[in-house]
Design a protein that fits this description.
1039 residues; alpha/beta; Rossmann fold; 5 domains; seven-stranded parallel sheet; seven-stranded mixed sheet; 11% strand; Sec1-like; transmembrane helix; golgi apparatus
C-alpha cells in the first residue's frame, strides 16, 4: 500500500504506512507515465482477447450478438395466428424452429400441405449466404407459412409465441450446422445447440398445453464408433467434434427435461441429408461447382488408403421421417399433481442404410454433368470428420414405418436435372413453346465460332433452378461468356457497369432485357455500349413478361391485383395505375411473342365507380401497347384472334365451390404447389382412382419384375433372373410414379370421408342449380356443427350469391351465428360486394346487407347443360366462362355487356367451319399497304414435335385424346383474361372447349388461386393496411 501514501493520508486508528525498503522498489508505479503505459497494455490486451478469441467468421459477425429483431403488435400477432391456423379436423399446430434452413423449409412445406398449422422461427444468420434463406422464406410465404425472424435464445419472444398460439407440437430444427466450422467458431455452437435448446425447453415446460417436441440430433454423435451399422443402443460417448459434442449434450438435456418436467421428446439423428435447396457447404454442392469450373476437387481417404463413405439420405425421406415421428409423438404428461405416467422419450436414426463411398459420389456427378472431374486424393484431416457412417433404421421402421426410397443416383439426378421428363413434355405446348423459342434463340445467338459450350447465365433472382444472381459479386471466369437476363434494365446496367471497370471477369457479355428500354434507360445503355463496346456481345429486347404455367394458360404475376384494384379507395392509390399499366404491358407481350393481333373485348361498366371501370381501363392500356406492335416487321396488320376480359364479378361461385377433379382436389385439399398433375384436367377424382387401379393392374401383368414379385416361393431359372434384371429399371420408375398418385388419391379420399365433404359438395351444387334452398342450408349447419369453418364459410358464400335477399338486414348475422363463424368471416361475404359491381339503383338496408343484383329474382345460378350427362357424381358444376365463350363463338355475346376496344379492318366475315362470326363497323384503313386476304385462322408459332394424343402436355389421359385435334386446322384462337385470379375449373373448361369449339382457348390471369387463397384475398379488401394506412409499394412475386 506504500504507493498510495501520498494520495490517501493515514487515518488514526486504522493503519500506518511502512516506509521500509521493501516498498522502495515499487515507487516506479507512482509515475503517471508508468500508469498510462500499464493501463494501455491492459486495454489492448482486452481488445486482443475480444477480437481474436470471439466468434468471428466474417467482418459482420462481430455484430451478430448485438442484432435485434422487431416483433409484436396486432398485425404481427394476426400473421402468426393465421399461419398457425389448423385447416383439417385432425391437424396439429406446429412451431418449426430453423424454418428457413434446408430441412426446416421442406418440413414446413410438407406440414402445411397436409393441413397443419405451421409457424416458422429463424434468425437468418450468415453461416452461409442469407439470400438462399430469404428465397426459402419467400417460397414458404407463398404456401402460407409465416417465418418469425428471431433467435431461440430470446426468451421473451418464445414466451410471446406460445401466448399467441397454443402449439401442440414443436419441430426443433434450429442449430448451428457444420462439423469443420466448429473449430473456427466454437461459441456459436454452444450458443445455438445447447443454450438455445435449453431456452426452448424452459418455455415448453411452462406452456399450457405442454407441446410434444421433436428435435434434430445428428449421426455425428456416434463419433469414432467402429461398430456398423450404427444403432440407437450403441455408445455415443466418443464425439469427434465439438458439433457432435453439442448434439450429444442436447440428447442428455432432453433426458433431463423429460424426467423432471414430463416433456414428450423425440430425437432424430440425421445421416448426411442432401437434395434441392440444400446447404452450399455440403460436398455435393461444391463438388458440382468445381467440376463445372474445371477445378480439382479434394477427396479424403481414410487410414491405409481406406474408403471414406457416407450414408447419404435424400431430403424427401428425411421429411417422411420427421412427419412420422411427429405423428406418433405422445402428449407431454407434465410434472407434479396426479401421476399420469412417464412421458415419452425416443431417439431414432434417419438414414438411407446404404453407405456410398465419396469416390462413387464423384463418379455419379461426372456421369450426370458429363464432365470429367480432376481428383486430388488427400488424407482425412483431424477436424471432426469420421471415415464412415451407416444407419440402422429398424426401430424407426417399426415405430412409424420409416423406409427410405431414394438412392444416391436418383437423388443427385433430381438435384442436377430439375426438369423431369413430364415437365419437358409439358413445355411442348404452344404458349410455353413461344417462351422457350424466345429463350432458345437468345441463348443460341450467343454462340460464336470460338465460344465455348458452357456459358454463365445470370438471372435477376435466385430460384430453384438458377443458382446465379445478378446482384452478387462473383468470381472472375475469363474463359467463359456471361449472359445477363433481366427485366430491370436500370439495375442491370448499374451492376454491369462496375464489373466492366473492375477488369475482365468474363470473355463476353450478352445483355437481354425482357422489358422494353425506356428513353431514360436507353441513355444509360448507350453510355455503357460506347464505353465497353469490345466486351459486349449482344443487346436485345425480348418482350417476354408473362409466365406460362400450362400449355393453355399464363400469368402476369400480380398476386395483389384484387386488393390493389378493388379495395376501398383503391383508385386514390398511386399503385392503382402502376398495377394496371404493368398488367397491360405483360399481357401485350403474350401477343407479341405469338404474333397475334386481337379483338380486345371487355365487360362494360354498369356504373361510374372506379371498380366497374377497371376492365375498360385495362383494355385501353392493352390496345395502346399492342397497336404499337404493328410497326414490327411480319406482325399482322389485321385482327387474328379474340381477347375477352372480365373480373371475378362475372362468376363468384367458381373460385369457392369444391371442384371434384383430381388436379383441383390435390391443390385444394392437400395444399399442393405447382401445376404438374400428370392426369387430365377433366379427370374426376373417382375416374382418376379407377384409372390408377387399371394402370397398376396393367403394369403388374406386363412387367416381369412385378410378376416375379407376386409369385410364390418357387425357384427361379437363369432365364427368369435375366428377365427380372432387364425389367428392374422400368419397375422402379413406374412403381415410384404410380405409388405417388396412389398415395395422393388415398389421402384425398380419406379427407373426403373424414370431413363429410361429399354431402357438402352435393349441397353446394344443388344450391347453384336451384335444387336446394334456405331450409337445406340451415339443416346442414345445425346437424354439422363440427364441419371445418372454412367449408361452412364457402357454403354461405355460395348461398349469398344465389340467394342475396337472405343476407339483408340481420339475416346474414343470424346465419353466421348459426354457423359459428367469426366477425372476420362475416367480412368475407360483405366484401364480395366490392367486386360484384355497383347497381345504379341500390336501396339502403341494415347493418349487414348484401345484394349483388337488385333486380335478381331467379333462385338458380346455373342451368343444366343440354345434351350433357353427369357421368360422375358431383360433376355437374361448370364455370360461367363456358357459357360466355360459346356465345362468343356463335356470335350471341351481348354487345352492350361486352364492348370491343378496336374495330375490324375488314368487312364482316364468317367461317361456318369454326362457327366464328365477326361483326364490325367503322373499319380502320391501313395506309400504303396492299390489301391481303384475311385468314380466319390464327398465326401459328413453331411448336415442338409431339404425339397428337398428348396435346395437353400431361399424359396419354389427355382430355383431348379422343378428339385427335390437329391444332393447325383449328380456327382463330380465343384468349380469355380474368382480373383478380382464375381457377382450375376455368382452366379445365379451356381445355374442354378447345376440342368442342375447335378453337384454341388460352386462359390468362393475374394469378391462379385455390379457394383458400381467394378467401384470404377477399378478407384483405377491408384490411386497414390497404384502405386506411399509406399505400404500400406494389411488390410482384417475381422480377
Amino acid at each position: 500500500m506504500s504507493h498510495l501514501d501520498d494520495d490517501i493520508p493515514s487515518t488514526p486508528g486504522k493503519f500506518k504506512m511502512d516506509k521500509s525498503p521493501y516498498f522502495l522498489h515499487r515507487t516506479r508505479w507512482q509515475s503517471s507515465l508508468a500508469k498510462l503505459a500499464f493501463w494501455s497494455l491492459v486495454f489492448f490486451g482486452l481488445l486482443f482477447i475480444f477480437f481474436y478469441r470471439s466468434p468471428i467468421s466474417n467482418p459482420d459477425s462481430s455484430r451478430r450478438s448485438l442484432r435485434t429483431y422487431s416483433w409484436g403488435g396486432p398485425h404481427w400477432e394476426k400473421r402468426v395466428r393465421s399461419s398457425a391456423r389448423v385447416r383439417t379436423r385432425n391437424g396439429v399446430s406446429v412451431l418449426v424452429t430453423g424454418a428457413a434452413g434446408f430441412v426446416g423449409t421442406h418440413v414446413s412445406a410438407a406440414l402445411k400441405r397436409r393441413g397443419d398449422g405451421v409457424l416458422g422461427l429463424d434468425n437468418f444468420n450468415d453461416y452461409y449466404d442469407t439470400s438462399l434463406k430469404r428465397s426459402r422464406q419467400a417460397l414458404l410465404e407463398r404456401s402460407g407459412v409465416f417465418i418469425v425472424e428471431g433467435d431461440i435464445n430470446d426468451l421473451s419472444l418464445l414466451k410471446k409465441l406460445f401466448e399467441v398460439v397454443p402449439f401442440t407440437h414443436v419441430m426443433h430444427l434450429a442449430a448451428q450446422a457444420g462439423v469443420r466450422y466448429a473449430m473456427e467458431n466454437p461459441s456459436s455452437y454452444v450458443h445455438s445447440n445447447i443454450a438455445g435448446f435449453v431456452n426452448l425447453l424452459e418455455v415448453c415446460k411452462s406452456a399450457n398445453p405442454q407441446p410434444a417436441i421433436v428435435w434434430a440430433s445428428s449421426s455425428s454423435v456416434y463419433g469414432l464408433n467402429t461398430k456398423v451399422p450404427f444403432s440407437e443402443k450403441d455408445r455415443t460417448d466418443q464425439p469427434a467434434s465439438l458439433y457432435a459434442a453439442t448434439k450429444k449434450a442436447g440428447e442428455e438435456i432432453a433426458h433431463t427435461y423429460n424426467h423432471i418436467y414430463g416433456l414428450s421428446l423425440t430425437g432424430l439423428r440425421f445421416f448426411t441429408v442432401y437434395g434441392p435447396w440444400g446447404r452450399p457447404d455440403m460436398a455435393y454442392f461444391f463438388f458440382t461447382r468445381d467440376i463445372l469450373k474445371g477445378k480439382a476437387i479434394s477427396i479424403f481417404e481414410g487410414a491405409n488408403h481406406g474408403t471414406v463413405a457416407r450414408d447419404f439420405t435424400y431430403i424427401d425421406d428425411i421429411v417422411k421421417g420427421c412427419l412420422g415421428a411427429l405423428d406418433t409423438a405422445e402428449k407431454s404428461t407434465g410434472s407434479g399433481g396426479k401421476k399420469r405416467g412417464a412421458a415419452q422419450l425416443r431417439v431414432f436414426n434417419l438414414g438411407n442404410t446404404s453407405p456410398v463411398p465419396v469416390t462413387e459420389l464423384v463418379s455419379i456427378l461426372e456421369r450426370l454433368l458429363k464432365v470429367k472431374a480432376k481428383r486430388n486424393m488427400m488424407k482425412l484431416p483431424r477436424n471432426g470428420d469420421v471415415p464412415f457412417t451407416h444407419a440402422n433404421i429398424s426401430w424407426a421402421e417399426r415405430e412409424f414405418g420409416y423406409k427410405p426410397s431414394t438412392d444416391l443416383q436418383t437423388g443427385l439426378k433430381k438435384f442436377s436435372h430439375p426438369l423431369t421428363e413430364e415437365e419437358e413434355e409439358i413445355t411442348s405446348s404452344f404458349v410455353r413453346s413461344a417462351a422457350i423459342d424466345c429463350y432458345t434463340k437468345m441463348l443460341g445467338s450467343t454462340k460464336t465460332g470460338d465460344s465455348k459450350a458452357w456459358k454463365i447465365l445470370i438471372m435477376d433472382r435466385v430460384t430453384v433452378k438458377w443458382v446465379e444472381e445478378l446482384f452478387k459479386r462473383r468470381e472472375p471466369m475469363p474463359g467463359m461468356d456471361a449472359i445477363y437476363l433481366s427485366n430491370l434494365p436500370k439495375r442491370t446496367l448499374s451492376c454491369f457497369y462496375p464489373t466492366c471497370l473492375a477488369g475482365n471477369p468474363c470473355t463476353g457479355r450478352h445483355l437481354s432485357f425482357s422489358v422494353p428500354l425506356s428513353p431514360k434507360n436507353w441513355s444509360t445503355t448507350s453510355k455503357v455500349i460506347l464505353a465497353f463496346y469490345p466486351r459486349i456481345g449482344a443487346l436485345r429486347e425480348m418482350n417476354m413478361e408473362y409466365f406460362p404455367i400450362d400449355n393453355q394458360g399464363f400469368l402476369t404475376d400480380h398476386e395483389q391485383a384484387l386488393e390493389t384494384l378493388y379495395a376501398d379507395d383503391a383508385e386514390n392509390s398511386r399503385h392503382f395505375n402502376i398495377c394496371l399499366n404493368m398488367m397491360a404491358t405483360r399481357i401485350a407481350t403474350v401477343f407479341a411473342s405469338l404474333k397475334e393481333l386481337p379483338f380486345v373485348r371487355y365487360r362494360a361498366a354498369k356504373s361510374t365507380a372506379s371498380r366497374d371501370l377497371v376492365p375498360s381501363k385495362l383494355a385501353a392500356a392493352i390496345w395502346d401497347c399492342i397497336s404499337k406492335y404493328k410497326a414490327i416487321p411480319n406482325f399482322p396488320q389485321t385482327e387474328t384472334c379474340e381477347l375477352l376480359m372480365w373480373i371475378d364479378q362475372v362468376d363468384q361461385i367458381a373460385p369457392i365451390i369444391h371442384e371434384w377433379t383430381y388436379d383441383a382436389m390435390c391443390h385444394d385439399l392437400l395444399d399442393m404447389e405447382g401445376n404438374n398433375i400428370h392426369l387430365s384436367f377433366a379427370t374426376h377424382i373417382a375416374d382418376a382412382s379407377e384409372r390408377l387401379h387399371e394402370k397398376m393392374t396393367n403394369f403388374a401383368s406386363k412387367n416381369k419384375a412385378a410378376q416375379m414379385r407376386s409369385r410364390d416361393g418357387s425357384e427361379l431359372s437363369t432365364r427368369d433372373l435375366q428377365k427380372i434384371v432387364q425389367a428392374l429399371p422400368q419397375y422402379g420408375e413406374q412403381v415410384d410414379k404410380l405409388s405417388t398418385h396412389v398415395e395422393l388419391a388415398g389421402k384425398i379420399n380419406r379427407i373426403i370421408r373424414d370431413t363429410g365433404l361429399r354431402d357438402l359438395g352435393q349441397l353446394e351444387q344443388d344450391l347453384v342449380f336451384g335444387d336446394a334452398g334456405a331450409k337445406d342450408v340451415i339443416n346442414f349447419l345445425r346437424t354439422n356443427q363440427d364441419t371445418n369453418p372454412e367449408n361452412k364459410l364457402r357454403l354461405l358464400m355460395i348461398y349469398a350469391t344465389v340467394y342475396p335477399e337472405k343476407f339483408e338486414g340481420d339475416k346474414g348475422v343470424k346465419l353466421m351465428q348459426l354457423a359459428r363463424l367469426s366477425p372476420v368471416d362475416m367480412k368475407v361475404i360483405s366484401n364480395m360486394q366490392l367486386i360484384a359491381g355497383s347497381p345504379e339503383n341500390k336501396a339502403k338496408s341494415g347493418s349487414f346487407s348484401l345484394k349483388f343484383d337488385a333486380g335478381k329474382t331467379k333462385q338458380a345460378n346455373r342451368k343444366d347443360r343440354s345434351g350433357e350427362e353427369e357421368t360422375w357424381q358431383l360433376f355437374r358444376f361448370y364455370p360461367m366462362i363456358e357459357e360466355l365463350l360459346e356465345k362468343l363463338v356463335k356470335g350471341d355475346l351481348s354487345k352492350s355487356d361486352y364492348l370491343c376496344m378496336n374495330q375490324s379492318s375488314h368487312k364482316e366475315e364468317s367461317e361456318p367451319r369454326t362457327g366464328s362470326v365477326r361483326k364490325s363497323s367503322a373499319p380502320t384503313a391501313v395506309p400504303e399497304r396492299k390489301a391481303t386476304p384475311h385468314s380466319m385462322r390464327s398465326r401459328r408459332t413453331a411448336t415442338w414435335a409431339r404425339p397428337q394424343s398428348s396435346d395437353d402436355g400431361y399424359s396419354s389421359d389427355s382430355v383431348l385424346k379422343s378428339a385427335s385435334t390437329d391444332f393447325k386446322k383449328l380456327g382463330q384462337r380465343i384468349f380469355v383474361f380474368i382480373i383478380g385470379g382464375a381457377t382450375r375449373s376455368e382452366l379445365r373448361v379451356c381445355h374442354k372447349l378447345t376440342s368442342s369449339l375447335r378453337r384454341e382457348v388460352v386462359l390468362g390471369s393475374t394469378s391462379f388461386d385455390d379457394p383458400p387463397q381467394y378467401i384470404t384475398k377477399l378478407k384483405l379488401l377491408s384490411e386497414k393496411d390497404i384502405q386506411g394506412a399509406p399505400a404500400q409499394p406494389f411488390k410482384p412475386q417475381y422480377w
